[in-house]
Amino acid sequence: MAEKITKREVDYSRWYTDIIIQGKLADYSPVKGCMVIRPNGYAIWEKMQGYLDQMFKESGHVNAYFPLFIPESFMRKEAEHVEGFAPECAVVTHGGGAKLEENLFVRPTSETIIWSMYKKWIMSYRDLPILINQWANVVRWEMRTRLFLRTTEFLWQEGHTAHATYEEAEEETVKILEIYRKFAEDFMAIPVLVGKKSEAEKFAGALHTYCIEAMMQDRKALQSGTSHNLGQNFAKAFDVKFQDKDGNLQTVWATSWGVSTRLIGALIMAHSDDNGLVLPPKMAANQIVIIPIWRSEEEKSKVLAFAENVYADLNSEFDVILDDREQYKPGYKFAEWELQGIPLRMEIGPKDLEKNQVVLVRRDTREKMYTSSENLRNKISEQLVSMQRDMFEKALRFREENTHEIDDYNLFKKQVDSTGGFFYAHWCGSAECELKIKDETKATIRVIPFKRDIEKGRCLYCNGDSEGRVVFAKAY
Ligand SMILES: [Zn+2]
User: What are the start-end ranges of the H helices in 249-408?
Assistant: First the structure.
């Protein structure tokens, strides 16, 4: 079964697609540019939703739902916003068999429709803050499809908050970024750089954008979450004002933030190997599969009875599958569960019964362990905890090994193309240098890290003054 997966070193992009198709995570749909998320992939999204939703709610946010359609006039109210999004929007011109009086955009993001409602809901300082999140689908027209990474329709969450002051909005923007960082590192086991986007890379209509950036195994960057301080741009466009404590009219401050099913692409590319998907235990719908092994009928009844007992014991604490299908051989089952990324495989055969043991195989290291069947729950807990930690540390080591400081532009050009990776380089802050570098190397400024040394230097491109290094990389 695993022969169907192209090796990473042969063709990274094919490898990625093979894992998704063979692992039954998603499939191409009859509609060009759109994907079907299959149950194995959707289970990962449900895990992501579960953890994030809990963190949003613990920090005071609530969920709501807004329409899929946005009147064209709304999109046009914020100049930068429409300029950024209009080229990739799907537009509905007809409905109910007749031409519409006003075109409707299928939402590429919901700032405009939400702020048209906030105008109705916000009158006084007592109505603030509003901390709303929406789980939804959005549409951004794509010419080239890449499953989970680049599809015309995708699923995401979008938070839209309204505040009385700039400081409160800024605090919210940073708070959400920290939730995203924590989710990426503690749950997805993916280390991320946190910081600010350059003007060229920020969200259309924002004052500034913060982001988390992760390194994939091909050493390219993947933007994994963004949090925008929108300033008063949308409040002004929709004339949303509130009366402050002294009775003065003030314009409202805004943020928006989101992560999407793109994160499933990040999860695949950060951890998986040539045998298929590798999932950190916290992101797996099932952590353990038990595979009983027998040859004779006599062995079968003994092994199955034992396996069923183990299953009942473990199932009280973990999500476990007992794979007792008779039409498949154990070897086939091993490969199938490996392909689908189940973190721990437990093999139970007649010899194990005699020795009162089970065999555990970790998906990430494929290490085989003979474990006495006493106290199994504790031992499995320990394995899952260390697997979660080891996967994070492995990804972190990989990022560190592929991160470079660089001061010479010609060397940079060569290295971006050959080894790839993250490059800490000086930049003068001009959009022109940024664009030239992008045109000449395809590398972009991924992030201006929050944690960076204040260090005087010379711009990689123009030799102008620089206050510190930023991170360049090729990105998805
Ligand atoms: Zn420069």
Answer: 262-271, 297-315, 330-339, 350-355, 376-401
The amino acid occupying position 372 is S
Mean pLDDT of 52-81: 94
| Other CB atoms within 10 Å distance of the CB of residue 305 | 11
Output the DSSP codes for 74-119. HHTTSHHHHHHHGGG--EEEEETTEEEEEEEEEPSS-HHHHHHHHH
Residues 108, 88 contacting (CB under 8 angstroms):
yes
Residue 130 φ then ψ, to 5° = -110, 125
DSSP-assigned beta bridge partners for residue 458: 465
Distance 414 CA to ligand 1 centre (A): 19
Strands 403-405 and 422-426 turn out to be parallel
Question: What is the Å distance from ligand 1's center to 418 Cα?
Answer: 24
- Residue with the two structure tokens 């955009």: 105
Cβ(164)–Cβ(122) under 8 Å?
no
pLDDT tens string 368-378: 999 998 889 99
Question: Could you give the CA distance from residue 273 to residue 15 in angstroms, rounded to a whole number?
Answer: 9
**Distance from the alpha carbon of residue 403 to the mean position of ligand 1, in angstroms:** 21
Q: What is the DSSP string of 22-91?
A: HTTSEEE-SSTT-EEEPHHHHHHHHHHHHHHHHHHHHTT-EE----SEEEHHHHTTSHHHHHHHGGG--E
Ligand 1 centroid, distance to 400 Cα (angstroms): 26
Would you say the pTM of this structure is higher than 0.85?
Answer: yes
Strand, coil or helix: 384: helix
CA 363, CA 23: separation in Å to the nearest integer? 14
Confidence of residue 143 (pLDDT cuts 50, 70, 90): confident
Quick one: pLDDT band at residue 240, thresholds 50, 70, 90?
Answer: very high
82 versus 188: the higher-pLDDT residue is: 188
* Environment of ion ligand 1 (residues, CB < 5 A): 428, 430, 433, 459, 461-462, 464
**416 alpha carbon to ligand 1 midpoint, in Å?**
18
* Tens-digit pLDDT profile for residues 174-185: 999 999 999 999
Q: Residue 144 has what pLDDT?
A: 86
C-alpha 474 to ligand 1 mean position (Å):
19
**Which residues 6+ apart lie within 8 Å of 100 measured at CB?**
92, 93, 94
Q: Are 183 and 52 in contact (CB under 8 A)?
A: yes
pLDDT at position 3, please? 60
- For 316-375, what is each residue's pLDDT tens digit? 999 999 999 999 999 999 999 999 999 999 999 999 999 999 999 999 999 999 999 888
